[in-house]
Batch of 4 targets.
Target 1
Amino acid sequence: MVSPTFVIIGAGLAGAKAAEALRGTGFDGRIVLLGDEHHPSGSRSRA
Ligand SMILES: Cc1cc2nc3c(=O)[nH]c(=O)nc-3n(C[C@H](O)[C@H](O)[C@H](O)COP(=O)(O)OP(=O)(O)OC[C@H]3O[C@@H](n4cnc5c(N)ncnc54)[C@H](O)[C@@H]3O)c2cc1C
């Protein structure tokens, strides 16, 4: 069976935590994180 792809809109803290939660629950499929930043990603905050 083909693994589903999760698309997360918003590449901020909430989006990063959503991706982390997916991995934390054992999801090993494709995760697409979409943001509207005009610069490369970096860590602004940690939680
Ligand atoms: C200058 C600054 C410094 C900060 N410093 C700290 C700190 O040191 N510690 C701390 O705990 N908090 C800090 N914060 C607050 C912290 O950044 C926010 O609480 C946190 O980023 C909120 O996360 P979020 O994912 O909800 O929203 P955001 O981080 O705002 O993320 C929203 C995401 O949605 C995306 N998006 C928006 N519109 C669209 C669209 N139309 N299509 C696709 N994507 C879209 C944006 O590109 C972004 O990736 C700071 C905030 C600012 C502005």
Target 2
Amino acid sequence: MQVASTYSPVCPGSTIPSVFETVQGNKVPVFFSRYPAGISIAAREVEDAVRKIDEEASEEGTRERHQAIVRHANPYGSFFTIGHCSAFPERLVLFSTLAEVLWLHDDVTEEMDHASACREHDEMLKVLQLNIDQSIFESGSMRQKALAVVLQKAIDIDPKEAPTMIKELRKYLATFDCIGGDFTQMEDYMPYRIANSGYWMSSYFIRWGMNMTLTEEEYASVEQFDIAMGNVVGLTNDYFSWNVEKDSQTDRLRNGVMVLMKEHQTTADAAKAMLLGVIVEQESLAAKLKEERLKKPASKKILQYFEAIELYVGGSCYWHSTAPRYQIFE
Ligand SMILES: [Mg+2]
């Protein structure tokens, strides 16, 4: 893997494990995030594991395998090693392979009609149990089998946390594609898109990756910050992926450019510029909410969570800014 040659040491004062190196997003012309980005020291190991799981969970020559190859073609690193750079390497490998199977699943189901896609989601839900049904290994689909293997490893590495982990995964699968049709208003779309982009699952695994849990009270105290950052993540994907998604054949395109075009009866170019404005506003809001929160006493865990989520958001912008697939300008 060729990685950006602009590494610098992890910032002084960092509260999270030294398991990543920082990268300079601002050297990338289309990067616009206010947040820093990094890459895991275990990047190579993670990428090898993800390629292996792609082979186990998808058939050669299929669209989803092709999509996975394209996704991994970013010379600056993979989405997981950048976005989840705060995770301990062993946990990062497990989360990345788990999320990769779900990403393949999303690629397979996104072009199905909504009713068929929901049936496929229900099939995958069957795997997500504390006591995995052994018959999955005999009769399941490739994706079910691959998910069952990696889920078992994630359960074994942290049995105490396993029930919550499974609850979060089930919530993702049950909600990320639970509404059919198109959206015409950003106020309806944005909360849906947070779950649809996998933000709630990813932010849970950011805590899991650092072997860290917030109390209910601590988590509630950062909820509004989380919502703003979730908006940034989902809409940043929309911003960069618009050119490759705009002509896709689906009954439910998930892209804020299209929602803004409908809401304001405007062109794609104008809507895309508006979307960038929405993202920057949400980042400002998140920064303001963090500042407010830090006026009150904050545990080390809260500080770690803020720092890791900021790396996730900055990393997401960095990855999208450098992914060859998205660098098509018309
Ligand atoms: Mg997209």
Target 3
Amino acid sequence: MKQFCSTLLLILLVNFCHATNLLDTIPYPNPSNWLNSFDLDGDKINDEIYFDYSGGAHCCYHIHIKLSSNETVYDYPFDMDGGYIFGVDNSWPDKFDIQDYDKDGLPEIKMMIQTYNAEIGKVPFKWKTKYHIKSNTILIEYENGKLITRDFK
Ligand SMILES: [Ca+2]
Ligand SMILES: [Ca+2]
């Protein structure tokens, strides 16, 4: 009987919300466009920074960057842990952020890679040589006409 009453109450509540359009009035945040506000290569045109998402509750996001100065798209294989419901932004600055870390006037992308649920995984050996990184927190920055990667220190 108690379960029947609970179910009935839920049905009435849902019908009430539909009838009064109550659900339509609940504010829903727009996807973040924070990623579109950076000029990595310093040509005064913001560059395209975007992610694809492999699915699952957390893992993984993969970053892609298209520079405005040379129209080159850089696709990186790094797995970034997440949980960015409204798109990747700087809501987890320890994991991902964009700012001018070395104060040279151009922003750098800092990201923590190869982690899952805050557990730090191993950076694949082939990435260490290809991307010149040793640690799980890296920087992507524009230098001498191209994007380079290095450890965040
Ligand atoms: Ca640019
Ligand atoms: Ca900089």
Target 4
Amino acid sequence: MIPTLRHLNNVEPGMFRGEGCWHLKIDYKPALIKPGVPELLDILIFKDRESICGAIGRHQPPLGFKPESRAAFFKFTESNNFNAIILNKPFALDPVTVKKPWGEEIWFSGIEERGVSSSNGIPINFLIEIFGEFLGCSKPPILLKILAPNPEPNLGDLYFELHEKKTEVYVVTDINIESWPNGTGQIRLGFNDREIQIQGTREKFIEKYLSSVENYQRCRNKIDSKVDRMKASFGLSEDEIIEAALYRTFLSEIDKDTINDERMLRKEMNRFTKLHEVKIGDAIKVEPYIPHSLQHGVRVVEFQTPHYERYIISFGQKVITQDHWDTKAALMKAEISEAKIEQPKKLDAFQDMVADFQEFNVTRVVLPSGSELKIEEKGYCLIMGISGETKLGSNRVIKEKSYFVPPTVSLIMTNETESESCFLIARENHSDNK
Ligand SMILES: [Fe+2]
């Protein structure tokens, strides 16, 4: 028989001493996502010598049977439509894709109305809110995503924007070979030193650049309102994100002079900014007040805290999240200089510190064939594969595959392959683990 603990408000690890299997019910009230539906959930906890497993379902399972092994527990949960995971071992994060005008974002630890990542069929907001104490993570985890811009120039270029508080870190995982035949992509970062010198002063530079952006924006608005009308004739709303092919069809119906003006004015505006070269594996840290725009066909992994403040300086298509650009306000705050891409700080033979923010840090690990790395027990961490293959318990960390790693006694990552492997580790910064 599985003992039932009946109705509880939350699931505390301390309640489950010794080995065994327990059933309980909780009134789940979603806290991390709105609007969420409160519901009565059935929870199963299974403990053996080495693992603690949790399962979530929406009806009471038969309690007459008592699983004696982890395999039997998983079989039991599956046949009763419960989703189960092991709470004290790394588990894969299954991504959710969110469409953007410039391409798409693939979220591995996102919890938002627009999309929630999951693991073994369990949305991660359930995992964090119900099993957070077991997982060493009781609030939204570090946000890990892939930015996947469209390969087409301009269409796949992100907003040229800056942040006041947010620092971003990108690690390049792919460069589209059709966009960048020699394998070197670009990011727009900061302004062009030569132009700053030509203008002589910060004020003069801002004045010239602002006027150039405004000229471009007038032409942009003209094209965008035509595209909006075409969308409407297709029964689409103005804010609908459409496929690249349909967008191209719309543009092909706009008169050639306007299209040529747009190209010329965009070139003129971008002359004031600086493009930097990037390759696969490169890490780019974007500090506050530095204008930045990842370019088409450059795919990156990004770690961030969920802050949403941004100033949009310019964009090569219609912005749908707001009805204006913040160019002037952004330039008043912007650092007017040619930004440099800082080299990551070497930590030891295998690790570089890619970013060290107040809330979390990210290290890049490059493991030569036959070598290993110990994952220390310092709260949870997120692991993201960049290249090659690394063993993590019974899992394999490969390109763009991500794992949530709860605090465990000891965990060794090993590269048993013939070639080098690379992955990232993101960890929260607490006063006791810095
Ligand atoms: Fe940004």
